[in-house]
């Protein structure tokens, strides 16, 4: 069965309202970031008084974003159960819910009318000739009959706690209550309020605006967020402290609050018990030994380790200087990486022992290992002499 025209209109309104709420949340969040950056500049310039005033705008913006998030969740609930809401609202249960709201509103406004009638009763009690008890008794019986009829209709509200559905009733109460106090003016939210008023009735709407519905109440979190009052001093201090910490600004107020935790022990702050040795790697301490007159003192483990490390470093990287360059080439060539065809690669440098041995066996040769022209001529002459 296709949805009715009223349900289609409700769904289309909710689908327009939810993206609008998300867009406003993004705008307010971006505005809050800009305001926080400006507050960090004020704190860096030591303009604390101006920062304390402007931080209230940041707090109000964050609260507005939180309110819009909660209203968005309730709108999504109404969108998911739009068919259920219309089926209940335009049926028998919706009629009973509207009658119940009328009786509740009348019951809450009745004490005020009774107070006015009691204050005016001495002036109009009895007639001019003393026969007022005739008409007065009739009026009194009529009032008691009307009160009995209204009390007889009240058990209709005690049949079940929910008007239509517990979750839907809570969403409707939130929309009615937040409409007057919403941080932004939204046309779609006004349309949604009108549509929910058609389903729940004007009496329910009037009760929900003041949070006076008997079984459904506005959540405490939303009540606190929509409450119009300045932020507390502790909240302002915490906001300024977090902004200064996020932007790396030194603010004296944050140091005062952090000093309440107490000071650290002196051994952790100054480190008086730490050893003064440069090596903090956990070497064993040198144990004293008994030395005789002709005995040679044994070096400690730390000194022996330092000596071995120094010798290893000298082998890896020989010292530089004029003495080190005698008989050696100042250019060092790293050997190629080992491969399968050459597992032990070596580099022959001119002037090395391998090169001298090769020259002694084969005579003079060029740097590339190819004999020179004189050497080839001599070898050719020797071959001719042989028979």
Description:
- Residues 375-387 have a biased composition (Basic and acidic residues).
- It comes from Penicillium diatomitis.
- This is DUF292 domain protein.
- Residues 357-369 have a biased composition (Low complexity).
- The chain is mostly helical.
- It has a domain at 5-114 and 146-226: Up-down Bundle (Ferritin).
- The chain has helices at residues 5-44, 48-80, 82-89, 92-124, 132-153, 166-179, 187-200, 202-209, 220-226, 233-246, 252-258, 266-269, 301-316, 353-362, 373-385.
- Helix 1 crosses helix 7, helix 2 packs across helix 10 (233-246) and helix 7 (187-200) crosses helix 8.
The CATH architecture of the domain at 5-114 and 146-226 would be Up-down Bundle
Radius of gyration: 48 Å
Q: What distance lies between the first and last C-alpha atoms, to the nearest angstrom?
A: 121 Å
Please tally the helical runs, counting DSSP H or I stretches of 4 or more residues.
Answer: 15
Shape: elongated
> How is the CATH topology of the domain at 5-114 and 146-226 named?
Ferritin
Query: What is the CATH class designation of the domain at 5-114 and 146-226?
Result: Mainly Alpha
């Amino acid at each position: 069965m296709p949805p009715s025209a009223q349900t289609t209109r409700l769904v289309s309104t909710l689908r327009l309202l939810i993206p609008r709420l998300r867009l406003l949340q993004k705008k307010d969040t971006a505005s809050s970031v800009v305001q926080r950056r400006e507050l960090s500049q004020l704190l860096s310039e030591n303009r604390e008084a101006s920062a304390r005033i402007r931080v209230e705008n940041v707090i109000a913006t964050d609260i507005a974003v939180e309110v819009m998030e909660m209203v968005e969740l309730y709108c999504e609930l109404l969108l998911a159960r739009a068919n259920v809401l219309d089926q209940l609202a335009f049926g028998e249960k919706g009629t009973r819910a509207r009658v119940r709201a009328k009786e509740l509103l009348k019951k809450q406004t009745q004490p005020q009318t009774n107070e006015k009638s009691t204050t005016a009763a001495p002036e109009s009690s009895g007639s001019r000739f003393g026969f007022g008890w005739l008409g007065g008794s009739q009026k009194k019986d009529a009032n008691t009959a009307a009160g009995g009829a209204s009390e007889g209709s009240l058990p209709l509200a005690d049949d079940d706690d929910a008007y239509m559905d517990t979750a839907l009733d809570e969403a409707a109460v939130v929309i009615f209550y937040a409409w007057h106090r919403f941080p932004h003016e939204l046309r779609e939210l006004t349309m949604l309020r009108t549509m929910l008023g058609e389903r729940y009735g004007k009496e329910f709407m009037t009760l929900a605006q003041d949070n006076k519905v008997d079984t459904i109440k506005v959540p405490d979190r939303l009540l606190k967020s929509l409450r119009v009052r300045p932020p507390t001093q502790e909240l302002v201090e915490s906001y300024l402290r977090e902004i200064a910490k996020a932007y790396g600004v030194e603010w004296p107020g944050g140091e005062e609050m952090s000093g309440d935790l107490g000071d650290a022990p002196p051994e952790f702050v100054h480190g008086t018990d730490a050893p003064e040795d440069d090596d903090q790697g956990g070497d064993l301490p040198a144990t004293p030994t008994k030395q005789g007159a002709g005995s040679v003192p044994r070096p400690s483990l730390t000194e022996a380790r330092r000596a071995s490390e120094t010798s290893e470093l000298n082998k890896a990287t020989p010292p530089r200087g004029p003495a080190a360059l005698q008989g050696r080439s100042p250019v060092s060539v790293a050997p190629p990486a080992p491969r399968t065809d050459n597992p032990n690669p070596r580099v022959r440098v001119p002037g090395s022992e391998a090169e001298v041995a090769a020259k002694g066996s084969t005579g003079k040769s060029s740097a590339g290992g190819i004999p020179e022209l004189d050497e080839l001529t001599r070898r050719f002459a020797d071959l001719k002499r042989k028979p």
